[in-house]
Each structure stands twice: as structure tokens, then as C-alpha cells.
Amino acid sequence: MTSCEEAETEETVTCLHLTFYHPGQAEKMMFRCLNFSKREQVRADDTAKFGRDSSVCRYSLMDTRVSRVQFSLQFYRKLHTSEYGFEVKNLSKKTKLTVNQTELAYLNKIDLPWKCIICFGDYQILAETQEGEAVDYFETHLHLAEAPILQERCLPCLPSLHPVPENGISPSFSLSQGKSPTEIDENEL
Q1: Is the dihedral of CA 69, 136, 110, 38 positive or negative?
Q2: What is the pLDDT of residues 72-123, one digit of tens each?
Q3: What is the pTM for the complete model shown?
Q4: CB-CB neighbours of 33 under 10 Å
Q5: Strand 71-77 and strand 84-90: pairing?
Q6: Distance in angstroms (rounded) separating the CA atoms of residues 164 and 171
Q7: In angstroms, rounded to a whole number, what is the distance separating the alpha carbons of residues 20 and 125?
Q8: Which residues 6+ apart lie within 8 Å of 148 measured at CB?
Q9: What domains lie within the chain, and their CATH numbers?
Q10: C-alpha–C-alpha distance, residues 133 and 131, integer Å
Q11: Where is the composition biased (Polar residues) (predicted)?
Q12: Where are the alpha helices (DSSP H) in the chain?
């Protein structure tokens, strides 16, 4: 047998890519304590906390307007599956946290979609999950955005701002062709 055949099977690791943006990041340097150079391992049973207090938070934001502990991310295995995910929990009593367009008050939590935007105050964080198989730990990879995330990206995970009729068919752009919309009674269909 060759050494390749005897080697243990390599596990892929779930990685949470987090891209940070704040309009004052160049002057205020609030991300100076974050490690943008490499991936970090986090034990599966640890809660990754974000906030101002570096003694409690794994990811410190140097800004007096950020809560001592702003929010946390918890890695978990979904019930009756082999899939893993993250839940985000708002730990700030003063600031609401928004995940895509869902607002979380203090101690509210929600499953983190595979691709979403987390917002609080002027902070924007693009979170993207890269799936893996390892059960003992996950990795985080932090990135810094130079432009606002909400304006630069058109994410498929964000709900459309246009209403969709009950029949599920989006209206065409016939209004621009000079036609006006007509109301139809559902009994006429």
C-alpha cells in the first residue's frame, strides 16, 4: 500500500466568510483588531461573539457605538440531517440587528441563510457559508469591503421589493408600453 492509500480521509471544513463594511472604516479603524489575513478555526461548541469588549468577544469592533457584546454566531447540526448551519442571535439591548430584512430585537435569534447581509447601525456584514463535513470545528475567513455591500451586490437571498400577485406570475412591464392595469374579479377567471 502506498502512503496515500493509508492516509486518513481528509474532511472538508465548514467556513463562514464574513465581509465587513462601515462608511467610516478608513478614518476610525474600527476593524483594526480583526484578522483579515487568514482563516481561523473555531471549536464547534464555542459561540463566536462580536462586539466592543475584547475580553468577551472573539471578534472585537473598536467603536464606542457598538454594544459590549453585539451579536453571536453558533454552529450547529440540523436535526435528523448531516447538514450544519449557523444561528445568529442579537445580544444588544440597544441596537436591533437585521439579517437580510428580518429585524431581531434583544435575544432574538434566527438561522443564518447560506448567503445574507447582517446589519446594525452603519455596519454591513456579508455572510456566506461554505459547507463542510467536519464536526469538531468550523472556520471563519474575514474580508474587508471597500464599497457598501448593500449597494454593490444584488443578492438572490434578499426578497424582492416588488409584490408578487397570488397567481405567482410577476406582471410584465406592459405599463411602459402605454397600457394601464385592469382589475379583474376572481369570479371572471
Answers
A1: positive
A2: 999 998 888 878 899 999 999 999 999 998 999 999 999 999 999 999 999 9
A3: 0.73
A4: 13
A5: antiparallel
A6: 8
A7: 5
A8: 21, 23, 124
A9: 15-149 (2.60.200.20)
A10: 7
A11: 170-180
A12: 3-6, 25-28, 149-152
Query: What is the spatial distance between Cα 113 and Cα 47, in angstroms, rounded to a whole number?
Result: 18
What residues does 118 pair with on adjacent strands? 99, 125
- Exposure of 83 in the CB half-sphere (CA atoms within 13 A): 10
Q: What secondary structure does DSSP assign to 102-157, as a single string? A: EEE-TT-EEEPPSEEEEEETTEEEEEEEE----SSEEEEEEEE-SS-HHHH---TT
Q: Which cell numbers hold the place of 147? A: 464599497
Cell 448531516 sits on residue: 82
23's grid cell: 462608511
Residue pair 140/19 in contact (Cβ under 8 Å)? The answer is no
Which pLDDT tens digit goes with each residue over 174-187?
A: 444 444 455 555 55
